[in-house]
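During the no-cost extension, the postdoctoral fellow (Dr. R.K.) reprocessed legacy sequence entries with the updated structure-token encoder. One reprocessed record is reproduced below for audit purposes.
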Amino acid sequence: MEVNLSIKTLHHLKISIQKIINSPYSIEKMKIYNYKAIELDDADIEYLRHKQVLYLSIDGANFNALNYVNEYKFVKWIKSGGYGKVYSGIDIT
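Re-encoded structure tokens follow.
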């Protein structure tokens, strides 16, 4: 996902991500981390760079490098399982 540089708060970033991944989880539970595994807050939003990789925990779990939002366009939902959802996507980098 490409970060919209007009986003000013963490809340708005979470809403944007929720729309893209169509998550059933509440945005209050979401945690977003940078590449150093540091959880983002409102003060960090202004420092996000274009095409920066962010890591996402939709259920509030601690950092896990396997849960990330990258430069992909989600095309189609494939299947859900015990560890998450599988989507078909296109690399847009």
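The chain is about 15% helix and 30% strand. Residues 10-91 form one domain. The remaining legacy entries will be reprocessed before the final report is submitted.
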